[in-house]
Structure to design on (481 residues):
């Protein structure tokens, strides 16, 4: 090991996705020297193959669908200009060039080390650089693993020869496939089926269960399935792929029910796996390929010494950019506090506790209609034995929703803790509900009592009026008991 190959920092961050960038920003702001290691593009999955390009594909699709339902808008039914949408997507993915994000790191005062990082024993990271060398990074205080996740593929025979689409191809493809088979029923499947069907593909979606978006309230998947079918997609439930082969220019698919399909491409949207397979986890006593379990301070629980942290997708707490960045802010504060010997505030909702991961994770699914969800679902309440009151309201009866679209279809559900009289879960499905969600997140994270929520007056005529309708419905439900 030569002197030039070895550098010491207070903090080493592995992975410069949105989460790693935020850890590094916080530790640098606290006066700790920080280096971030990145093997691909600074900005991570979210910027180039996930949130940004997918939402750029979806926004025109959703707007077109909405406009077609509003009377008097002449261009309503016109097909999308595919080239313009794809060019917009390319811009939103920064043309897969990370110069802008590298410049941001520089202004934030974070050093960048390009290459593949691996743990090399406690507080040590070895980086295989693009030039073929190795740089050894020594961390005085902390190593933060923020390596994210990758598409998990089912164990099908001949998968390598099939060359299926994963979320990466689904967000970066340069033309719509004529026929696209989408395998899965989760968020990626629902969003990408929506986007590519609107861009001209004939989508066949294969769900092994009996509904779309199974993690969410059942009405969410039902409404999305209804709209996808109206858009021309072929949705099949209780079926999956037994085998698939690439043949000529397309793929041949054998289904579990004995049926066969041919298509131009097949997308596996079948969940995520942690990017920890080649991370040197064995050098610190952990198993390669595992998710990294942390406590609420984002310290990896199975490693002694409070020096190893994991934030973002890789800890599996909530696979969402905003939630990973929340974790990053807290992990950064924890690292800085420990480095300066300041006691941690780890009480629920304390400065150094990621309590929101457990109580208030917001998510928007950008389908037609939008799905917006935060906090407990009825299925989780049942599974954990938590007693909640459930309040439902038809968003199509809200005056503001009817102004939005006279044929508005949507639903709202609030879960209420009857003893504390606070909202613990809130779920909306309908056009335009994405921007409504933060009100629910504030109500849950703030543990605002219902008595005070009555004083939060929603403006007329907006979709937010659903808050008043939910409170009224709950009041009447309780009175009827
Ligand atoms: C199609 C799709 C759409 C999505 N849309 C949304 C959305 O709308 N909203 C939302 O909140 N979330 C969305 N997500 C989820 C979101 O993309 C992730 O939650 C987010 O990217 C996680 O950030 P991260 O920093 O933990 O990981 P990543 O963004 O995956 O970044 C990890 C980084 O680490 C690097 N890396 C990995 N291993 C190493 C190593 N050994 N050495 C050096 N570098 C390494 C990678 O190259 C990468 O740059 C979407 C996901 C998908 C797949
Ligand atoms: N708008 C957003 O916030 C957004 C958008 C996209 C992705 N994401 C995040 O990315 C993560 C990954 O999304 P995802 O949709 O890939 O995963 P997911 O876990 O949401 O859904 C995976 C789906 O694949 C199915 N599946 C798994 N193995 C299968 C098999 N062998 N055959 C058939 N079906 C199979 C599952 O039943 C499930 O329906 C999610 O956790 C989500 O939070 C968020």
């Amino acid at each position: 090991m030569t002197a030039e190959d070895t550098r010491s920092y207070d903090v080493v961050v592995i992975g410069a996705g949105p989460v790693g960038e935020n850890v590094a920003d916080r530790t640098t702001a606290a006066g700790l020297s920080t280096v971030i290691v990145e093997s691909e593009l600074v900005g991570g999955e979210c910027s180039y193959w996930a949130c940004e390009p997918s939402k750029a594909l979806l926004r025109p699709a959703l707007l077109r669908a909405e406009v077609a339902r509003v009377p008097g808008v002449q261009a309503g039914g016109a097909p999308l200009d595919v080239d313009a949408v794809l060019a917009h997507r390319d811009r939103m993915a920064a043309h897969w060039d990370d110069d802008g994000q590298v410049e941001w790191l520089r202004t934030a005062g974070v050093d960048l080390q390009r290459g593949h990082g691996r743990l090399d024993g406690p507080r040590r990271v070895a980086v295989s650089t693009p030039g073929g060398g190795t740089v050894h990074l020594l961390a005085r205080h902390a190593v933060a693993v923020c390596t994210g996740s990758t598409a998990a593929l089912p164990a099908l025979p001949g998968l390598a020869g099939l060359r299926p689409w994963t979320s990466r191809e689904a967000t970066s493809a340069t033309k719509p496939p004529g026929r696209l088979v989408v395998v899965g029923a989760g968020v990626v499947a629902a969003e990408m089926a929506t986007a590519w069907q609107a861009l001209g593909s004939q989508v066949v979606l294969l769900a092994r269960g009996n509904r779309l978006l199974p993690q969410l309230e059942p009405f969410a998947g039902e409404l999305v399935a209804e709209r996808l079918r109206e858009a021309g997609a072929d949705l099949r439930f209780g079926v999956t792929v037994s085998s698939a082969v690439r043949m000529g220019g397309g793929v041949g698919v054998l289904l579990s029910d004995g049926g066969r399909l041919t298509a131009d491409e097949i997308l596996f949207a079948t969940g995520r796996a942690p990017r920890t397979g080649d991370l040197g986890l064995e050098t610190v006593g952990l198993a390669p390929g595992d998710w990294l379990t942390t406590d609420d301070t984002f310290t990896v629980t199975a490693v002694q010494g409070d020096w190893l942290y994991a934030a973002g997708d890789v800890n599996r707490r909530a696979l969402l950019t905003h939630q990973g960045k929340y974790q990053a802010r807290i992990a950064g504060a924890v690292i800085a506090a420990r480095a300066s010997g300041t006691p941690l505030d780890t009480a629920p909702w304390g400065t150094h506790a990621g309590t929101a991961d457990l109580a208030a994770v917001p998510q928007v699914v950008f389908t037609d209609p939008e799905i917006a969800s935060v906090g407990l679902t009825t299925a989780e309440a049942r599974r954990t034995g938590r007693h909640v009151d459930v309040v439902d309201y038809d968003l199509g009866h809200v005056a503001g929703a009817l102004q939005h679209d006279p044929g508005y279809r949507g639903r709202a559900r609030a879960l209420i803790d009857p003893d504390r009289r606070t909202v613990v879960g809130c779920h909306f499905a309908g056009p335009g509900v994405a921007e409504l969600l933060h009100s629910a997140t504030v109500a849950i994270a703030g543990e605002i009592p219902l008595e005070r929520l009555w004083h939060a007056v929603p403006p007329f005529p907006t979709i937010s009026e659903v808050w008043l309708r939910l409170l009224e419905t709950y009041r009447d439900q309780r009175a009827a008991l």
Remarks:
- The domain at 159-270 is CATH 3.50.50.60 (FAD/NAD(P)-binding domain).
